[in-house]
Amino acid sequence: MKKLLISCLSTIITMTLSAQTVQHMNDLKPEPKSGAINLKLTGELSSGRNGDFRQMRDLCFQVHHIDLGDAQSLEIPKNAFHSRHQLETIILPKTIKTIGTQAFFACDKLNAITIPQSVDNIGAAAFSGCKRISELTIEGSPNIGEYAFARLESLRTVRVNTKVPPKADVSSFYGVEPGKVRFIVPKGSEGAYKKATGWSRFFTEPKFAHEVSDPETCLTPYPSDMSIAKGAKPINVQTAWRILTPKMDGHSYILDNEVKQARDILTARIGNIANSRQRGIQLVLALDPSLKDDEAYTLTVNAKGVNISGKTTRGVFWGLMTLDQLLRGSGMKDCVDAIPQLTIKDVPRTHVRELMVDPARTFIPYEDLKGFIPEMARYKLNALHLHLVDDQAWRIEIKKYPQLTEQASSRWGMDDIQAPYKGFYTQEQMRDLVKFAARYHVEIIPEIEMPGHEVAAISVFPELTCHQRQVPVRTTCGVSNELLCPGNEFTYEFLGNVFKELADIFPSKYIHLGGDEAGNPALDCWTDCPKCQALKQKLGITTTDRSENWKLQGYLFDRIIALLRDKYHKVPMFWYETDFKKIQPGCVTFAWRNGLTDKALDAAVANNARIMLCPGEHCYFDYPMAKGDMPEKNWGMPVTSLKDTYSLDPAWGKDKNFESNNLFGVAGTLWSECITSPERIYYQAYPRAIALAEAGWSPQEKRSWESFLKRMRPMAKDMMRRGISFSMEY
After folding, report:
1. Which helix (H) or strand (E) holds 159?
2. Catalytic annotation on 453?
3. DSSP states of 295-332
4. Which residues contact 708 (CB under 8 A, 6 or more apart)?
5. Neighbours of 388 (CB within 10 A)
6. Over the stretch 452-467, which tens digit does the pLDDT of each residue have?
7. Band of pLDDT at residue 581, cut at 50, 70 and 90
8. Is 512 a catalytic residue?
9. Which residue among 18, 131, 491, 505 is least enclosed by CB atoms within 10 Å?
10. Which residue among the candidates 58, 214, 390, 443 is catalytic per the annotation?
11. Could you say which of 82, 441, 453, 618 is catalytic?
């Protein structure tokens, strides 16, 4: 594998000695695309599913300089160069009219940009996070959207060539400090720019109207019970705060984490004003054992300040997340001026609200993985499921088998993207992740696939398979026919050693075993295996209708489940397949297949099992949120719209008995075959993850699609301000 990587890199270096000049991306073969450093296009650019823009963004993984000056195009599409961290310069077409939303989001090596005179519109967050742009020239008079040039930390010169200020949003240049940027406009027009919305920020801090938070339009998930004190005077929050915690059983440190979180919230929203020595409004954090649920909390706002009580520290933390949303208000500015007096009594509908990420297909650097956790917690999502291994890579250090990460954590390419994919997590990093996540009351749940989706391990240990074939790490999506052999004792020795180390790393009581897509025809590899045939004979399996192979998979699962449950006291989880006729007691099964949720739920009820709801038609966040949304290039993914996600009923229309006895929680999945940067994980997750959070938390009768859309708008503004990417296709 290492020799292959070196050979590919050598070929690419040779090809990049000269710039690539073509009319269209299809004029280049895959190797020149992946090797391009300097790229010039001269034709009429296409923006379709696999058009020129998608190929420039995803296939030219190391391009630094792009010249589109002689190309023909009326637009730079939304997300055209989203999170291309290597891009340094781009010359835009002279004909473009529109630069789409997030077109250059987080292109953090882009050093200067000129907006041609032809441009009429620049979309929201178009250049947000381009922190190395030092010079911006606007030749014409475009309408400039929200946060279009936000968070440009290195901006030093802005030149606008029109006397009349282009229309800009008040947030268009968020982050610009008055007097810190050389602002050049036509002589005699300075006064107009000083008065113009958006542009006045270059001269003085913008002023916003006094705002009192409206809980009805800013809270998500919507609380179980909320009453606003009519006629009571709202309390001013732009003042000093005192954070207080009563001693409990003689100990005050129980809520130390929540005190720190409270201080961080107040500092981020209002400034460094949380000082216990100053008089001011109080924020009192306490435990209340009378509450009936471990995640329940009450939040009251009165003339003295804010009181948050939880049954446990988790409840207190969720109350703080609600306070943060109250302080955010409409999202027009960092913090509102006042919040109303009110009482909130809140409790979750489900107790596991999970997101799954997939660093196996596309590795997520460790610090980026950590950064995903606080954003989840804002919306009361409380579990992060790590899909650590698959056919395409092994991503977790196993000390018993160092070869797994030495040989199977690197590959070249994923489908048509010819780029290096490499990286793994050390056990020390995973332990640190667990501790970090605990600060946000997020549980880390690991997954090791079996018996399918294990080609990465098989590439290192071919003896894991029936015929001991040496196969390379997979570089395409889809399902491999190579499975672990249930008739080979080494399979159980290997898995036992892996799960032993996993159980020591992750304190979660849950471990996911995979189990998906190992059916026909893949299980045919067990049909002609002598060891599998001997095992069938030993077990008395005589059927020949292919069910015999599912019975072998059941045997493999039973042995591993017994190990996890009896020795390590873990609760096994797995992806449900309709061929699983029996679900082991105590296991959690995931309903994931589009259109087969009813069968999965029937099986859970029949086996008295718990079930996680993550059906593809509601919860697959790697699918595009609208037609034409990222990912544009895929293998026929359906659309999972924001409304589709919001419409999920965790009880699936069943009665309270099912909800009490069988429903485990809700989960959103982020398979990463087409997610090629950390920023795109956020883009695919949000805002659907927020809709899922409300589905999992709020009572069904409190939910309304129209209300949710209203409450989404402040969150969208707040996410743009903080530099978080999300799909705007709703």
Report:
1. strand 157-160
2. yes
3. T-EEEEEETTEEEEEESSHHHHHHHHHHHHHHHHTTSS
4. 220, 222, 646, 691, 694
5. 22
6. 999 999 999 999 999 8
7. confident
8. no
9. 18
10. 390
11. 453
